[in-house]
Structures are given as C-alpha cells and as structure tokens.
Design brief:
The complex is a heterodimer. Chain A is an alpha+beta fold. Chain A contains five helices and four strands. The longest helix of chain A has 19 residues. In chain B, the strands form five sheets. A five-stranded mixed beta sheet of chain B has the order 7-8-6-5-9. Chain B has a five-stranded mixed beta sheet with strand order 11-10-14-12-13. In chain B, strands 2-1-3-4 form a four-stranded mixed beta sheet, with helices on one face. Classes of the chains: A alpha+beta, B alpha/beta. The complex binds flavin mononucleotide, iron/sulfur cluster (3 copies) and FE2/S2 (inorganic) cluster. Flavin mononucleotide binds next to strand 9 and helix 20 of chain B.
Chain lengths: 126, 596
Amino acid sequence: MRPVKTLEDLQKIREEASRKVNVRSDRTGIRITVGMATCGIAAGARPVMMAILDELEKRNVKGVTVVETGCIGLCKYEPIVEVYEPDQDKVTYIKMDPEKARQVVVEHVINGHPIKEWTLESADIQ
Amino acid sequence: MLYRSHVMVCGGTGCTSSGSDSVADAFVNELKKNGLDQEVAVIRTGCFGLCELGPVVVVYPEGVFYSKMKPEYVPEIVEEHLLKGRPVKKYLFGETVTEEKIKPLEETTFYRKQERIVLRNCGIIDPEDIEEAIAMGAYEALGKVLTTMTPEQVIHEIKKSGLRGRGGGGFPTGQKWDFAYRQKETPKYVVCNADEGDPGAFMDRSVMEGDPHAVLEGMAIAGYAIGAEHGVIYVRAEYPLAVKRLQIAIKQAKEYGLLGENIFGTGFNFDVEIRFGAGAFVCGEETALLNSVMGRRGEPRPRPPYPAVKGLWEKPTIINNVETLANVPAIINNGSEWFANIGTEKSKGTKVFALTGKVNRTGLIEVPMGTTLREIIFDIGGGIPDGKKFKAVQIGGPSGGCIPEQHLDTKIDYDSLISLGAMMGSGGLVVMDEDTCMVNVAKFFLEFLVDESCGKCAPCRIGTKRMLEILDKITSGKGEPEDIDRLEELATTIKDTALCGLGQTAPNAVLSTLRYFRDEYDAHINQKKCPAGVCQALLSYTIVADKCRGCGLCARNCPVNAISGQLKQPYTIDQEACIKCGTCFEKCPFDAVVKA
Ligand SMILES: Cc1cc2nc3c(=O)[nH]c(=O)nc-3n(C[C@H](O)[C@H](O)[C@H](O)COP(=O)(O)O)c2cc1C
Ligand code: SF4
Ligand code: SF4
Ligand code: SF4
Ligand code: FES
C-alpha cells in the first residue's frame, strides 16, 4: 500500500499497474510467438518464454503481445521464437535459449534491429 | 509480474449465478496443473453486458469470447488455447467464428454500435483491485480538480458538458451542483442514488459491480464542487455483490489516501458510507430516499424546499444517480467539449440501457444519445426471435411508455421520448412482439405501481387503483365504451395532483398504449376480443371439424368435461361450460383446436 500524496504518486502507480492490464487493450503493436508444442517444450521453450516476459517487464515495453503457438513443423529448430511487426515480414528465430531471447527483445523488439544470424533464413543459407 | 495472457472471467451478478465462480476456479487449477500459472492470469471482472450468454470468459491478448462456459470445457481450453495458442472454436460464441477468422468481442455487432463511457471498465478490469482501476486512469480527474481547479470551475465544466441526470428526470447536473454550492449552510452532503428499483433493470448494479471506483471518484468530485465532506451511497440491500465491491473499493481508496483526509495533500477531506435501501420502489424518489437514510419512513415530501437547500439532516444535499456520477470523471479527464460532442443537441453523452424482452440478444448496452430504437433493437439486439413481428418497446420502466413501430427511427434523447409519451427513465428497454396484448402490458405496469404506491396522497393511492380496476374490467371482457374516457380523465387528474414522481408518471403506460394501440382497447371493449390472444377471458376455443380426427384426447383432458363427441367423429366444445384453460389447445395432436 502506497499512500498517494500528489498527482505524480498516482501517475507512478498508474505506470506500473498499466503494464499489468496492457495485454487487454494494446493489440496494435508487435507480436512475439513462442512455439510451445511438445517439441518446443521438450527443447526448453518455457524458460525462453519466461525470459521474454521478464525482459519486457524489466524494460517497461508496452503494447507487445506474447503468445504461444503450436508446432510449426520445424521441430529440430526448436525453441522457435517469431517476431511479427505491423507491415513487415515476420522474423523467425531458431534454437533460442533464455539469454538469446533476451537479446532479441532488446535488439529487435526495442531497437528495431533483427539479429540476422539467429534466424531461420541464415540457417537455410548454411 | 507480467502475464502474457489474461483469462477474464465475468464476475457480474448474471454470470455468478450461472456458475462463473466454478469456471474461474477450474482455470486456476488447470493452469497450475499445466505449469502456466506464472504466464497466464485469471481475473474476475464486472458484467460484460451479455449475461444471457454467461458465464462469459474473454481471453486476451486475442480478445476472443467464450460463451456459456462450463468447468468441463476448461481443460481443453487450457491445453489447446493457452498452451498451444489455438482458440477452441466449439466453445467460442458462434457469431465470432467464421471459416477464416475469429473476431474479438469488441468487433461483434453487439459491441460495435456501442460507445462505452460509463461502462468503460466493466469487463476490462478487476473491480476488487484499485491498481487496475488506476491503470485505466481512475482518480486522475479527482487529482486534477483538487490541484488545478476551483469548485466554480468544476461546476462550470459540468454545466458546459451538458450532463443531465441519468436517474430518470434528466435534470442538468451542473445546475443542481450550483444550487448546492451557493448554500451557506454546512455541513453539506453528496448522496448517490443506487436504489434502482425498476423491474428488470440492472444498469446501476453493473456499474457498481464492474467499476466501483468511478462512482466513488464522481462523488468525491461532486463533494469538492459543492463543499461537502461526506458522501452516502443508498444502495438496495438486494445487491450483495455491488455492496461488497463498493466496500472493498472504499477500503482500498482510503488505504491509498484517495478518500479520507487531506486528499492529494490539498486539505480536502471526503469520506463515503453505505446505507441500505428499505426495499420499496418509492424510496428511489429523492425526498423519500432522504427520509429513509435518516431512519424515517420512506415517504416522499413536497418540494420545495429542494434537497439542495434542505436535504439530509436539513442540510444542503445533492442526490445523483450512479450512472450520472460515473460520467463525471470521464468529463473532467476528456473535457466538457468532448462530452458535449456526443449525443444530440439537448441530451449529451451516452445512456446505458438494459435490453430485455422479445429480442435475440438481451443485455446491458451503452449507446450515444441520439441512437435510434431501431439500431438498438435490430442491430445491437439482433431483432425479434422466432421470426415474429415487432410490436412495441416499453422504455423508462414502470413510469415510462410504449413506443410502436412507426416511431422506431426516432433518435432517442430525453425530449424526444417525452414527446412520444414515454421517458428515458433509468434505462429499461422491454421489447414486445406481436403476441403481446398492449392492454395487458399497461395493466402489468400499473399493477406494479399500485403495489408500490406509498399511500400518502389520495390521487395516487385511490386514483391508480381505480384505473387498475377499469383495466381489469376491460381485460376480463366487461369493458364499456365509456371506460376509455374514464381512464383518460383519471390519468390527467393523477398526473396533475400526485405528490411525487411515482404517482405523476403512473398513468403513462395506460396513456401511451391508448395513444398508439387504441384499436386493441376497442377490440377488448366492443368485440370482446383480445387480438393478441392473451387475455384468457376473451378467448374462445373451438374445434375445427375438418381437422379433428376424433381421437378424444382433448375430452379426456378437459378439467370441466366441456368437450363431447364420439370416437372417430369430430368433437365439439360446449362454450358455456368451457373455462378457457387452454388444455385442449395444447393437447390436440392434430392442431384441430383453435383459439381466437
Ligand atoms: C418513484 C421514483 C423512483 C425513483 N427511483 C430512482 C432510482 O432507483 N434511482 C435513481 O437514481 N433515481 C430514481 N428516481 C429519481 C430520483 O428522484 C432523482 O431524481 C435522481 O436520483 C436524481 O439523480 P440524477 O439527477 O443524477 O438523475 C426515482 C424517482 C421516482 C419518482
Ligand atoms: S404519488 Fe404515490 S408514491 Fe408518491 S407520495 Fe403520493 S401516494 Fe406516495
Ligand atoms: S384432441 Fe384434437 S383430434 Fe382429438 S378429438 Fe380433440 S380436437 Fe379432435
Ligand atoms: S379450454 Fe379447457 S375448459 Fe375449455 S374446452 Fe378446452 S380443456 Fe375444456
Ligand atoms: S454478468 Fe456476466 S455478462 Fe453480465
């Protein structure tokens, strides 16, 4: 409990609390999906998911929705994380781990620079 | 903790009674079992407005809408949707599912035509968590008025917005506050009228259950504007969930320093207490309400003096409806111009309605003033069920009136409804189809008011009873042509002389049905027929000889042995003996019995 003494106090609570309810109103921005079928979970998708959520919260990123998806037929590349931006091609990251996932949040989602070397395209090229 | 998905389980009165608690519990358990409880949150909300489809569950971020949920469906939804990201179509509300796409709740026709100001947070937040309310902007308007506006400026802003009372009368709210502000006497009081007594109405209840802080904030702003430090919410004791949520909200607001002393460090104090209604309809009338709060008999008294001058404990008091007060923070936050841009010339903003009766989608809706009845009934409500024809819509609760087909395109606001012989009332909308007898409808509403009349003044106590007796006569086939004049004469006298609004508006149902459905009265009186086939005493049952196969089933079931005949020959009904119970009509396997 934090007594509100000024409008700034209220504003502070609002900022913190609005992160909790954002998921319900902001659906325009970036969407991150994590493959969570059996193959993904076996490959360690859950810690990846938790790392993404944690990083988003820590950096107070708004309007990003995180959803799980089923198997997309690329089991050997799991854990897979896909980032969808409005009006852009989706970027598919493969063989994620929590640390890489955090960097995707920072570099791609926040700074707007996809990390090419971890994507499916670069794997195909190899 | 950031949750990637939110399962919103409706915790309104409707869904709670259809079992939403056990659905919420099932989600909590199942999520834990699947190790998802750190990623997916379960939140109890207020009413979504679609109570008939309850228990309602909405899942974000997709915003998809599961209707008529059962705990048994939960494991599959958790496994498929929340774990694997594939919403389970068979449990979703059918209208939102097409081949290619699943529509979120707010894209359904039910939601799209609505504009939600008062219901802005209902179904969106957990009403028992003040931080969720704050996240949506609660108490910012209070902070703004306390730190940057004078009481005069607040009143001026409310006046400019054009806000009028949502409790029925439509009195300009800013003007009411101004009267109270000008009174020298102290202490002053703010009373929130949450007595909502119209049969079938649940607008105010849903606001209190879904967004209690909006009401508290509105009251505190009103208190600052008129110079009051005490607020009282007069709420029906039959609303336990609303009371509980209000109590929690008051407690949390005090803990956060948003009610109580020295709010926002400005030296402004405001507290709110809850009083329980005495359970009578008339206690919603403002002077009766004040008497009831003071522990006296809940009877109206003559005005003036108006409550703004002599109200609670003879001190200046404003009484505002729940919905009126819930509009106030939105007006302060968005500005009076924003509000005044919504609605019609003389009625600004939106109105919440409870849509019920013979309409496909019943529920709680909020639309801009100036929306037509046709849009409400046919677009939002989805029209009349079973291919029946629309006949009339009763608007304004027992004191309101019935509006027929030819006026469906009227833009509704306070004044247009009055000129049609109805009124805004608190927002009940009962849709009636071709099978409704309008004389019987008038009788139903009048009966309610006769029961609820407090008996203090003669025109209402005696006059409404006389009117009811005449309607009884008419519907039982004993009406005389003069009865219509008698009804009209009584109605005018009661309207002019009754002490309070209950009596003054009691004749409306009769007058409006006389105005638009005079032919039905005539049919009852002159031809002794009820065209809709509702009034039992005016029906006659006959057997169509061509259709009758002579099975004898009707005769065996008739309670008074009024049917006779020989097996395999057409049977006949003895009209003298028949008591019109309708059993033969229901029993005949060959539809040979007709009623007319
Ligand atoms: C018989 C009767 C019942 C009423 N019931 C209610 C009610 O349940 N709720 C309400 O807000 N107003 C009710 N009113 C209207 C109140 O007297 C009063 O006008 C209203 O609470 C003022 O608030 P407002 O200006 O915000 O609408 C009723 C009036 C009458 C005559
Ligand atoms: S009009 Fe009816 S309810 Fe109102 S004071 Fe008179 S008797 Fe009572
Ligand atoms: S039940 Fe119908 S068919 Fe049978 S005897 Fe009666 S009217 Fe005739
Ligand atoms: S309406 Fe009832 S009383 Fe009349 S004939 Fe049919 S069963 Fe008998
Ligand atoms: S109570 Fe759940 S939708 Fe109304």
